[in-house]
Amino acid sequence: MTLDDAAALADGSHRLALGGRRAFVKLRRARPADFFAAEARGLAALAATRSVRVPDVLAVWRHGIALEDLGNGVATPAAWERAGRGLAALHRVRRERFGFEAPGWCGDSPQDNTPDADGFRFFVERRLLPQARRAFDAGLLGRADLERVHAVCGRLRERLPDRPPVLVHGDLWLGNLHVCGDGGVALIDAGAAHAGWAESDLAMAILFGEPPGVFFDAYAEAAGIDREWRSRAPLYNLYHLLNHLNLFGAGYLGAVRSVLAYRA
Question: 71-264: what fold?
Fold first, then answer.
């Protein structure tokens, strides 16, 4: 099949032969023009570090992307260990400022990556408050909820460590740690990649299920992290919970409020 043939397929996901390679093609014509371009940029940034496995980008269209087909398999403990060390290596890639050279997407939500030297201000103004205001405007958050979000924002410097900007995946839930056909682990769906806090990736990795313990053990051994990061995870994940509230509705309101009640 040619690139033109692939681009003409129906919306959805397709596995096919493309230019002599097995390809995984995603097509969504209703998405904005930069949606798949952001995914390609994120994958390119991760690939350039040579720290983690990501699929090759074979083609990008306004309404779709063709990726190397990694297949599906079962990971061994050794593969999860390699993935943990790889993530630690990714998080050693320092950036001068938080953000990214272009806007991104976290799921179907646009993500403002305007660079900022201050990580706390970046997290408040580019992540938490835009999601909270969007939810409030849509009637998904009440005014008291919004005030609690502002209260959390005002105390972030007391509750989170002041860490440098490093390259992060940005949406590292368990499903984006993809187990390939050969048993290796790759990072996929990188439209949210940016320079942020390393702990934010770890936090997202335990929000909806989590990888085996050997993944985190290998990461900790390679990175020398503060093992108290799990206690801070709800603060980082407030962004993702607000995003899920906006994308999927009131079923996530209880999870948002549990973080706000504990942390406000």
Answer: Aminoglycoside 3'-phosphotransferase; Chain: A, domain 2 (3.90.1200)
